[in-house]
Specification:
Structural class: mainly alpha
Number of strands: 2
CATH class: Mainly Alpha
Number of domains: 1
Order of helices and strands: HHHEEHHHHHHHH
Radius of gyration: 17 Å
Shape: globular
Number of helices: 11
CATH topology: Cytochrome Bc1 Complex, Chain D, domain 2
Helix content: 40-55%
Strand content: under 5%
Length: about 220
C-alpha cells in the first residue's frame, strides 16, 4: 500500500507541476480580487456560517489559504470534478483571471500570522491513521506548510468541514455531491467514517494559519 501511495503521490505532483506551469501565466491581483468577492462573503465572510447540503457543516475558512490551491479547487468545481451545486454554479461564472484574483486576495486576507507551534502529539490510534494515509506527504508536518502550494493548508480547519470533505472523496455516481480525485479518493476509501472523523478532529485541533474575517454581506 505504501508503494502504491508513493506512486500516486508522484503522479499527483507531476500533474500539479503541469497545472502550476499553466497557472503561472495568469498572475492574480489581490486588489482586483477585492472587487470580485461579493459571491464569496455571503458564506466565507460570516463567522460560524453553516452549509446545509448534503449535511450541516461549517463552510471552510479560506482567508490565509494557498492561492494556487484556491485556483485548483475552483477549477475542480468548474469542471465538475467537485459536484457541490452552489460552488459549481459560482465557479462556472469565473474566468481564469477572476480565479487568480480571488485567490490572491484570500491568500493575504486578514494579515495571517504564520503558525509557530509544533503539532500536538496524536494518540496511538490517530498516529496510525496519519501514517496509513501518509497525510504529511502532501500537507506537511504541521499541516500548514504544504509540500506544494496547490495542496491546501488544513491545520485548524473546521473539523466538521474536514470530515464532510474527506467523505466526499468516497462518493461515487452522484450527480450533485462528491469529489473526483484519484489520490484523495484512494486515500479516503481506506478509512471508515469513524476514522475520518478522528483524523478531522485531530487536524482541526492544530494551530492554524486559516481564519474567517467577518465582512459585510454587501458593499
Amino acid at each position: 500500500m505504501n508503494k502504491l501511495l508513493t506512486s500516486m503521490f508522484a503522479m499527483a505532483v507531476a500533474s500539479v507541476t503541469a497545472f502550476s506551469a499553466q497557472a503561472q501565466e495568469i498572475k492574480g491581483d489581490a486588489k482586483a480580487g477585492e472587487q470580485k468577492i461579493a459571491m464569496c462573503i455571503g458564506c466565507h465572510g460570516i463567522q460560524g456560517y453553516q452549509a446545509s447540503f448534503p449535511e450541516i457543516y461549517r463552510v471552510p475558512m479560506i482567508s490565509g489559504q494557498n492561492a494556487k490551491y484556491i485556483v485548483a479547487s475552483l477549477n475542480a468545481y468548474k469542471k465538475g470534478e467537485r459536484k457541490h451545486p452552489t460552488m459549481r454554479g459560482i465557479a462556472e461564472t469565473l474566468t481564469e483571471q477572476d480565479m487568480a484574483d480571488l485567490a490572491a486576495y484570500y491568500e493575504q486576507h486578514g494579515n495571517i500570522k504564520p503558525a509557530t507551534k509544533a503539532p500536538k502529539a496524536p494518540d496511538a490510534k490517530v498516529a496510525a491513521l496519519l501514517q496509513k494515509g501518509a497525510c504529511i506527504s502532501c500537507h506537511g508536518d504541521n499541516f500548514n506548510k504544504t509540500v506544494d502550494p496547490s495542496y491546501p493548508k488544513i491545520a485548524g480547519q473546521h473539523k466538521d468541514y474536514l470530515f464532510v470533505a474527506l467523505k466526499s472523496y468516497k462518493v461515487e455516481n452522484q450527480a450533485t455531491w462528491g469529489r473526483s480525485n484519484g489520490v484523495m479518493g484512494g486515500i479516503a476509501k481506506q478509512f471508515t467514517n469513524a476514522e475520518l472523523k478522528a483524523l478531522s478532529a485531530y487536524i482541526a485541533a492544530q494551530e492554524s494559519e486559516l481564519k474567517v474575517v467577518p465582512q459585510p454581506r454587501f458593499r
